[in-house]
Design goal:
With about 130 residues, the chain is an all-beta fold. The protein has strands at about 1-5, 10-15, 20-25, 35-40, 45-50, 60, 70-75, 80-85, 90-100, 115, 120-125. The strands form two sheets. Strands 2, 4, 5, 6, 9, 10 and 11 form a seven-stranded mixed beta sheet that branches. A four-stranded antiparallel beta sheet has the order 1-3-8-7, with no helix packed on it. Strand 7 and strand 8 form a beta hairpin. It is globular, with a radius of gyration of 13 Å. The chain starts with a strand and ends with a strand. About 35% of the residues are buried.
Length: about 130
């Protein structure tokens, strides 16, 4: 079992920045990847970014490339999502996820993840 707790969401003006955190606990040695997804009202959950836990590879959705950065602190078992140049389209509930099966590739699909956090709201005002 892996437990995930997100934090860092909030209200920010367009053009501003936020950093989300996801603290993992439990059987973290079994993880192959951690990712961030988001879901806006009335829309499907969409991939934002992922980090391969062992190899350190990172992947981003085209909509956030150059603005968002995923990183991790192994000592703290924490993954971060640094978000810059935020706009109204970034408004959503952001979810952290952990995958414990090897798929390879970018880990951009929800089915590739086994554990999910409770979500944290990010609201960008224009």
């Amino acid at each position: 079992q892996v437990q995930l707790v997100e934090s860092g969401g909030g209200l920010v003006q367009a053009g501003g920045s936020l950093r989300l955190s996801c603290a993992a606990s439990g059987s973290i040695f079994s993880m192959f990847a951690m990712g961030w997804f988001r879901q806006a009202p009335g829309k499907e959950r969409e991939f934002v970014a992922a980090n391969s836990w062992s190899g350190g590879s990172t992947y981003y959705a085209d909509s956030v490339k150059g603005r968002f950065t995923i990183s991790r602190d192994n000592a703290k078992n924490t993954v971060y999502l640094q978000m810059k140049s935020l706009n109204a389209e970034d408004t959503a509930v952001y979810y952290c996820a952990a995958g414990v099966k090897y798929y390879g590739g970018s880990y951009s699909r929800p089915y590739q993840y086994d554990y999910w956090g409770q979500g944290t709201q990010v609201t960008v005002s224009s």
